[in-house]
Amino acid sequence: MTVFDILAKRNADKLRAVRADGASIRYHLRMDNSEAGVIDAFELFNGVSLAFNSIPQGTASWDDIEPLELQIDWCLRGRFQLDDGIRLGDGELAVHDERVRKRSMRFPAPLYTGFTIRISQSEGAEVLSRLLSLDFDALAQRLTGSSGCKIYAPDPSMKALLESFWDIDEREPLMRLRLKALELISLVNATPRLAPRTEDYLQRSTIDSLERGMRLLGSNLEQNVAVADVAEASCMGISAFKEKFTKTFGITPMAYRRQCRMERAAQLLGATDKSISDIALSVGYRNPSKFSAAFAAAFGRSPSGYRAANSSGSAHLANAFQSRE
């Protein structure tokens, strides 16, 4: 039984297997707000799994098993937070062990895309030690430190390798992902001084204020909202709010509001028969031409072209924004 099998059994109301194709199993992760994330899990070796994660904004709370294992999380884009203080952003690599509790996972950006490699410290460690001729226990201790977690900024060579995991197509995916995982562990082992992340942690109260601002930016999309008003509601000056919002969520405040508008427009185009001009008004655009230009910039096609290609219902939005299906 894999780690995901155990998690799904303990969290039947949160994690559900929806498809198996031989190489992988797809799970739906139900968020606390009832939105659904997608996890594609591969069992690479005995005790070593790889999961591609595409998770919408929200919080997922579950009963984790705190197994004796090493986890490597890499964020392609978005943001990922644990209550233990781990915050992972675009291009960052986190390595942590069972000392880090995983009861609540927060995804503050509109979409988190990344992967997780889980290596059990019994079977998985033994397999990798044998295949790569390395001291896995010493490697795990170096990577996690005294706190059980470290966050790194990969160098260009390692970043290129991490990004290449998404290049795998349907041709022998399991074997090719095995080789990439082995290459990654080998490269990490051969890099004695991984560069630590330089970003400072924010206090919980600051993050709460920023998330309050994010909720305001994502609401009342038909109205005009000034960043100054959102900053004031977040108890910050406008410059501090812009800087901290962008650093925390990887997107500027107004770009985030524009993204929310376009996502809402896409939902209405796919699920209703409203005219394009009415949809434009409902997301704050009085000029249909400006709306069409903004929509095309976000989705790569006009509103009418998008509607024609996505007339099957609500699945269109997830497909449009997920980078891996």
Automatic annotation (TrEMBL):
Highest taxon above the source species: Bacteria
UniProt key word Transcription: yes
Record bears the keyword Transcription regulation: yes
Record-linked SMART domains: HTH_ARAC (SM00342)
Keywords: DNA-binding, Transcription, Transcription regulation
InterPro entries linked: Homeodomain-like_sf, HTH_AraC, HTH_AraC-typ_CS, PchR_regulatory_protein, Tscrpt_reg_AraC-type_HTH
Protein known as: AraC family transcriptional regulator
Source species of the chain: Gordonibacter faecis
